[in-house]
Amino acid sequence: MVVKSEDGQQLRSFRFKDEDQSQEVRAVERRILLETLANQLPTESVRFSSKLANIETSENGATLLQLTDGTQILAKIVVACDGIRSPVAKWMGFSDPKYVGHCSFRGLGVYDGGQPFEPRVNYVYGRGIRAGYVPVSPTKVYWFVCFNSPSLGPRVTDPSILKQQAKDLVKNWPSDLLNLIDITPDETLSKTPLVDRWNWPGISPGPSRGSVVLVGDAWHPMTPNLGQGACCALEDSVVLARKLAAAIESGPSSTAIDEAFRSYGEERWPRVFPLTIRANVVGSLLQWENPVVCGVRNRVVIPKLVRLGPMLEHTDFECEPLVSAK
Ligand SMILES: Cc1cc2nc3c(=O)[nH]c(=O)nc-3n(C[C@H](O)[C@H](O)[C@H](O)COP(=O)(O)OP(=O)(O)OC[C@H]3O[C@@H](n4cnc5c(N)ncnc54)[C@H](O)[C@@H]3O)c2cc1C
């Protein structure tokens, strides 16, 4: 990883393995992850572009899902992984996630002849703005620019305006970053307001209601400052799948399913709740604007004080083999 200030000065450079033997960074393109997961399932079991319009419990305890194309599905079990604006979470009584005061531009630069970067994470810290870029394949490089914005402002979807806004934020920053934004195809560009929700025990509902259970951002939206949101969604899925499989194998009674959901919530809450708060606090610190504080950060904290090993412990999760060898 290389950390620079906005004027291009290198503040720190290190290898994750030197900080902590167990650590490494893997950048994975979302499309590749989704295709890899979908390819593990029988083709006919996945239906794309199925937007949920309404959800309700039917008289026999099953769940009726109505899609916007008019399709109705009566489901014995619903695992809702429908993201930060989850209509299922809303139906279960969760409040809307809260805007934390900063937004992020993101994109995927494509170099048809091969990307020029070394396999490392690059961070650039400014005042109230930070950016990063990392290669995700021999031809693609992911980047982001995160900036303070007390209000959300008008919703902009025109990619040329989004690109210009992103470039304006970092206009005198290292040219690598600006070139990367320039060559980013429109369809990969987005601007996202960062939000989270602190699911306090006793105040927020649990992750399940009847035969419906939440996974990932739908349950615990967190800011991306620790890079753990998608990782946690995958962890949720592994834990839930194991518990549900055991419940179904034991004869799928509603009591066994209830117990699987309860045990899933109990196991996952202590992992995701502290991470949500920590990601929020880290984000607030990283978005500092004060010039004196930023000067101390660049001259003392990043080069001399930060020890990444202990700060990365939250990424440790023992997944164990996913498919038992029989
Ligand atoms: C700027 C930024 C950087 C990030 N960086 C990282 C990182 O480095 N590492 C990391 O682990 N995480 C990162 N994250 C977080 C990560 O993107 C999310 O945590 C992750 O995508 C959550 O996965 P999910 O499956 O729960 O939700 P999503 O990926 O949001 O998927 C939800 C799905 O539900 C669908 N959906 C929504 N509404 C409906 C509906 N009504 N009917 C049917 N389907 C619906 C959506 O179309 C979508 O396909 C980042 C997030 C942001 C904003």
TrEMBL record:
Task: Name the family the entry cites.
Answer: Belongs to the 3-hydroxybenzoate 6-hydroxylase family.
Q: Which PANTHER family match?
A: FAD/NAD(P)-BINDING OXIDOREDUCTASE FAMILY PROTEIN (PTHR45934), FAD_NAD(P)-BINDING OXIDOREDUCTASE FAMILY PROTEIN (PTHR45934:SF9)
Quote the protein name from its UniProt record: FAD-binding domain-containing protein
Gene3D superfamilies given in the database record: FAD/NAD(P)-binding domain (3.50.50.60)
Q: What organism is the protein native to?
A: Linum tenue
Q: Which Pfam families match?
A: FAD_binding_3
Tell me one GO molecular function of this protein: FAD binding
Keywords carried by this UniProt record: Monooxygenase, Oxidoreductase
Residues forming the FAD-binding domain are 34-272
SUPFAM superfamilies to which the protein is assigned, alphabetical: FAD/NAD(P)-binding domain
